[in-house]
């Protein structure tokens, strides 16, 4: 079944409009600051998309209860798997953190990503 009222959702990533300031919930080192601009919500809040950026620091990731697709649009970082595998990521790199992913992020200076999150429960 299609929704005749549905329209394509587009947004720019250069400058975040009315972002929400924050910090990682599970910091490891540094004084990381984040900005998040949510641009889409659907399926009763179970699907969201937007832009997120972070300053230098290291922090844990835990995607329990959701899957997240990411695409780095600016800067660089490393995402480290629980087994120690290091994924060096830069602008243009897409990746998925599956449900229950418990790695950590290492940001040397700055990173910005576009994300799409789907709640799994």
TrEMBL record:
Q: Which residues form the (S)-ureidoglycine aminohydrolase cupin domain?
A: 44-115
CDD domains to which the protein is assigned, alphabetical: cupin_TM1112-like
Q: Which domain of life is it from?
A: Bacteria
Its protein name is Cupin domain-containing protein
């Amino acid at each position: 079944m299609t929704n005749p009222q549905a329209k394509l959702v587009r947004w720019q990533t250069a400058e975040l409009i009315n972002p929400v300031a924050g910090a990682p919930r599970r910091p490891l080192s540094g004084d990381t600051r984040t900005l998040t601009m949510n641009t889409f919500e659907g399926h009763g809040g179970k699907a969201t998309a937007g832009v997120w950026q972070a300053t230098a620091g290291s922090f844990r990731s835990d995607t329990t209860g959701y899957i997240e697709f990411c695409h780095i649009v600016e800067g660089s970082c490393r995402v480290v798997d629980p087994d120690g595998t290091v994924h060096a990521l830069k602008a243009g790199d897409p990746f998925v953190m599956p449900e229950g992913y418990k790695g950590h992020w290492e940001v040397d200076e700055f990173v910005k990503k576009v994300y799409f999150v789907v709640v799994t429960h």
